Amino acid sequence: MSSLVIIGVLLLLGVLMLVVEIFLLPGISIAGIIGGVFLVVGIVKAFFFSVEAGILVTIISLLLIALAIYLFMKSKTLNKLSLHDAIDSKVEPLKNIDIKVGDRAVTLSRLAPMGKISIGNKVIEAKSVKDFIDDGVEVEVVSVENTTVEVSRVKTI
Questions:
Q1: Which domain holds residue 13?
Q2: Which helix H or strand E contains 144, and what residues bound it?
Q3: Residue 70: how many CA atoms within 13 Å on its side-chain side?
């Protein structure tokens, strides 16, 4: 195979792999590394012909990358891959559970600062306000919000 064909194939494969890396695979993956290696090998191989050929291939490869990114973004491919539905649901872990400030509970696991408590025959997740609380300790509800119950250790006299 001719060296020019090899350089062209390396550049095209490199650009293709970089486009796949940028738009389809998150993070740094093997596709991006291979794409970069293909581009570098193609450019270095062009410099073996002459400095002018190497510079020309470098400019062509940069233009190819820019063109490929532009065409990919202009295409409808990203619209087909993206999520169009809105998420409008809510998580309400305390729904249908009657908990008020001042209620007493017992810790089922260590609150460090989050853990499980038993309150009114229900097991829920709670947060310790001040310090870590071991399991089996009586606690008092300090605040109740949408998703969080904050408790503190019951003070003994």
A1: 3-81
A2: strand 138-144
A3: 6
Of 11, 19, 21, which Cα lies nearest the Cα of 61?
A: 11
Could you give the CA distance from residue 73 to residue 149 in angstroms, rounded to a whole number?
A: 46
pTM equals 0.50
pLDDT at 82: 74
90 in a domain, yes or no? no
Same domain, 46 and 115: no
- pLDDT tens digits along 31-75: 889 999 999 999 999 999 889 989 999 999 999 999 988 888 888
Name the residue type at position 107: T
Count of structural domains, the chain = 2
Give the torsion sign (CA, 61, 66, 67, 69).
Answer: positive
SS3 86: coil
* Cβ–Cβ < 8 Å for 27, 51: no
CA atoms lying within 13 Å on the CB side of residue 8: 5
Residue 126: CB atoms within 10 A of its CB come to: 27
CATH number of the structural domain spanning residue 128 = 2.40.50.140
Which residues have CB under 8 Å from 74's CB, separation 6+?
none
